Amino acid sequence: MGRLVRRAVRLIVGNFWLIFVFLSIGAAVWLYALTSHTNMPSRRDLESYLSQQQLQVGVEETNGFQHVYYIYKNSKISVTEGLANNTEPVVSDEYIAWVRTPYGTNQSLLYVHNVLDRTTTQITSFGNASKPDIYGNHLVWEDDSAETASVYFYDGLSVQ
User: Fold this and answer.
1) How confident is the model at residue 14 (pLDDT cuts 50, 70, 90)?
2) Backbone phi, then psi, for 107, in 5-degree steps?
3) Alpha carbons 11 and 5: distance in angstroms, whole number
4) CA distance readout (Å), 15 to 2, 29, 97
5) How far is Cα 146 from Cα 110, in angstroms, rounded to an integer?
């Protein structure tokens, strides 16, 4: 009978430690998610910041891929993520545009991000976009996927 009790105690204690480890991992993940979201500036803070200065943007390598970020009060705020190279960032007011080349493709696609409402819009779905420029939410870029390069314009609603 003593052996059965010892075995039951070991089983209970072993399961307790297993539950403790799972709860600890869950708490760590939750705490990481909480802190990563609390570092994001509020819309009001960003509006105030943008009324005084232009956003600074850049590209840095993370896990073998290039990602776009902007600087807010000496902190880098990521705009892109995932398995793609994001290059050629340009900025105007609250808009950041860049070229994204998804891993395993030869497509270079154009995206724009609004830092105030934290939305990202894919402007092109195919082609070889390059050399973007932006003024407000108006974009121009070159696409040389055809035999001759073409210049395109996005007015915030449609591509021309």
Assistant:
1) low
2) -85, 135
3) 10
4) 20, 21, 51
5) 16
pLDDT at 105: 93
Distance CA 36, CA 132 (A): 30
DSSP sequence for the chain:
-HHHHHHHHHHHHHHHHHHHHHHHHHHHHHHHHHHHHHTSPPHHHHHHHHHHS--EEEEEEETTEEEEEEEETTEEEE---SSEEEEEEEEETTEEEEEEEETT---BEEEEEETTTTEEEE--SSSBEEEEEEETTEEEEEE-SSSS-EEEEE-SS-B-
pLDDT at residue number 9: 58
Token pair for residue 23?
A: 């709860």
Q: Which two tokens stand for residue 35?
A: 């802190």
**Averaged pLDDT of the chain:** 83
